[in-house]
Design a protein that fits this description.
The chain starts with 8 loop residues before the first strand and ends with a strand. The chain has a single domain (9-128), classed as 2,3-Dihydroxybiphenyl 1,2-Dioxygenase, domain 1 (Roll), CATH 3.10.180.10. The chain has 2 helices and 8 strands. It has helices at 17-27, 82-94, and strands spanning 9-14, 31-36, 41-45, 50-55, 75-78, 99-105, 112-117, 123-128. The longest helix has 13 residues, at 82-94.
């Protein structure tokens, strides 16, 4: 029997705190929960999941390489419909959000997903589970 009951939050270290914050609020529509100016950190929620963005503390910044580093490969966020997935893709194209791949079938479907990057280089998968 599992000893946990789900994810409380995911903490991500970012190099561009305000730009990454705008990705979650302006592009994905999340709301800001609170800020900690002393760290600094910003907490966001979509009503189901909480994400904490922590500002990197030291320069130079070392970017994550999913093929060489141990750590977060990507974060996957669920969307409610195929239409929403496609609309997010269009919104991200107009906001110059870097794309790894546009919406495509996940395996044999019907699920679809796309992979994007936030302004700090965090890989964000958006997935419609197909149901």
């Amino acid at each position: 029997m599992p000893k946990t009951t789900g994810v409380h939050h995911v903490g991500l270290t970012v190099s561009r705190l305000e730009e990454s914050a705008a990705f979650f609020t302006k592009v994905l529509g999340w709301h800001e929960v609170k800020r900690r100016e002393d760290y600094p950190a910003i907490f966001f929620s979509d009503g189901h999941t909480m994400i904490t963005l922590w500002s990197v503390k030291q320069q130079p910044v070392v970017m994550f390489d999913k093929n060489r580093n141990v750590g977060l490969h990507h974060i996957a966020l669920k969307v409610g419909s195929e239409l929403e997935l496609n609309m997010l893709h269009e919104t991200m194209k107009t906001n110059d959000v870097p794309v790894e791949f546009a919406p495509e079938m996940l395996g044999s479907g019907p699920a679809k997903h796309m992979m994007r990057y936030d302004p700090s280089g965090i890989r964000v998968e958006l997935i419609w589970p197909g149901n």
